[in-house]
Amino acid sequence: MWTQWTRMISEHVAVCGVPLDLDDVNKHMGMSVVQNWTCPKCNQKLKGKNCKWIKTEIVEDGRKWSRPQPELNVRIAKGGHENGINADKVIGLVEGSLGIKMPDKRNYRHTQRKVWDAQEKLFHIRQEENLAKHVADAKQLPEYQPLEFEYNGETHTTNPSTVIMDGGGKKRAFNHRINGDETGFIVTSGVNQRPIALVHSQVSILCQFIFFINYI
Ligand SMILES: [Zn+2]
Questions:
Q1: Going by DSSP bridges, is the β-strand pair 195-202/182-189 parallel, antiparallel, or unpaired?
Q2: Do 107 and 154 have their domain in common?
Q3: Does 156 share its domain with 61?
Q4: 120 shares its domain with 146
């Protein structure tokens, strides 16, 4: 992006032979900075951007269509989510310590929600794919035997295969009864080692304290 911009303006200046005028700098779009330049000789307007604008397929709740947004805003929301850094800490680091302007908290949360939706969607697609591959691979094993069983007078067939289960949480779990306010549980295929199910939960507990003050 930077190289492209430098090349474009240096080529323009080389042709027109005059320095460009900076009209304004737009810093109202989160981390995206747009500089508007004009060539005083040919009057051409040139726009310098610090990042690409992208349009994701995810449509935000309450909106009819997806709108383009600065790639930097999406990257920072994605990075924060993947590394377990919450909005306040990201804003504290980028804006407070580095002095780089961030989208306001409300907009940051909108972007964050879109990242969550995208990851959730991808997770379900992968889960279906992995499950189908697990069943297909299990059927190729020499010891594979479909299991027949009767239910409500009808005969059904199921595909027995090996899976590995593990999980954990804040509370000690016995016999895989994993529960509590922060837990995770994963089932991995014993045939091709792909994850085939993931269950997690996190409950935020809001504590409210009420103070009664008696004036006597
Ligand atoms: Zn020019």
A1: antiparallel
A2: yes
A3: yes
A4: yes
Q: Output the CA 81–ligand 1 centroid distance in Å.
A: 44
Residue 156 and residue 83 share a domain: yes
Cα dihedral 125, 129, 135, 141 in deg (nearest 10): -150
Q: How far is the CA of 54 from the centre of ligand 1 (A)?
A: 29
* Residue-by-residue pLDDT tens, the chain, 216 positions: 778 889 999 999 999 999 999 999 888 777 888 899 999 999 999 998 888 888 877 666 666 677 788 888 888 888 888 888 888 888 888 888 887 778 888 888 888 888 888 888 888 899 999 999 999 999 999 988 888 889 999 999 888 888 998 888 777 767 767 677 788 888 899 999 999 888 877 765 554 444 444 443
What is the Cα–Cα distance from 8 to 106, expressed in whole angstroms?
Answer: 35
Residue 156 lies in a domain: yes
Judge if 64 and 143 occupy the same domain: yes
Give the distance (Å) from ligand 1 centre to CA of residue 13.
Answer: 7
Residue 71 CA to ligand 1 center (angstroms) comes to 29
Output the CA 19–ligand 1 centroid distance in Å: 9
Radius of gyration of the chain (CA): 27
Domain tally, the chain: 3
Together in a domain, 13 and 87: no
Residue 182 domain boundaries: 162-203
Interval between CA 6 and ligand 1 midpoint (Å): 15
Compute the distance from residue 17 Cα to the ligand 1 centre, in Å. Answer: 8
Task: Note whether residue 208 is domain-resident.
Answer: no
Cα 21 to middle of ligand 1, angstroms: 11
Name the phi and psi angles at 105, rounded to 5: -55, -40
d(CA 163, CA 130): 12
